[in-house]
Automatic annotation (TrEMBL):
Family matches, as PROSITE patterns: FA58C_3 (PS50022), LISH (PS50896)
Keywords assigned: Kelch repeat, Repeat
Protein name, UniProt field: Putative muskelin
InterPro entries the UniProt entry points to: CTLH_complex_component, FA58C, Galactose-bd-like_sf, Kelch-typ_b-propeller, Kelch_1, LisH, Muskelin_N
Amino acid sequence: YSIHKCSSYTGSYLPENILVDKPGDQYSRWSSDSNYPPQFLILKLERPAIVQTITFGKYEKTHVCNMKKFKIYGGLTDEHMLELLDSGLKNDHLTETFTLKHSINGNQFPSRYIKIVPIQSWGPSFNFSIWHVELRGNEDRDLVMSSLRWFSTYREKEAIRLCLKHFRQKNYSEAFESLQKRTKVQLEDALLTKLHSLLVQKGDFAACEELLEKAANEGVFNEYLKNEEYRPKWTPILCTDKPEGKNRPGMRGGHQMCIDVQTETLYLFGGWDGVQDLADLWSYQTSTGVWTCLS
């Protein structure tokens, strides 16, 4: 690659310095003249390629100008790019390699320009520095040409989908139907189209709920739910005896608790009641709501 464009540089810290890897030379780096956004560095490949990884070389010691946060963009032109990576470097001397996004819906796409956008340095208010950059990927001509043809078709379909979305939002129903019929491009999943019809056009809330319940039962949301973080739901433990009943552990802290998931039995041992250490052992049956003093 070659240096296509940069936002700025300081003194002798030219962007061309990143072409060679000299971890022992503190002057072998590109350094911006400001940390005020946008700061960037655009690399130009000799020819389009499937860019799969980017490797950053570093100075032999930790440095305040290393990029703590950065983004990588790629595209066939320097004006229209896709985000390929959002990550950051560790503040050490070790080389780091990152995998770049290079496929959409299982299809690889080529890039000619790679844009590196520093966002935050390790030192507060310090300029950004990049010491060395290495790109790896596949430049096989047949693969790249095939990817180019697919990517061109993909962009055309996405442009049509944006037009369809605009027409529907503005309620240009005739233009929407005409464009969709002519291009045979589907705006979205059939479920979303039906939901839009029921909710926006007809205002049938009951039918919307039935549609979503049916989709949930068919497992439409399973993939989304699988990636969600678990969140605890707390409910009070209510005993079957009266509040003043004595057959339950008293107030305490610093106790030990565990649960037997097979029998749904909760065990509590010891603790401190503010006056003395406790050594009593209790069990709580979640199905019956009864505490039992075991020892």
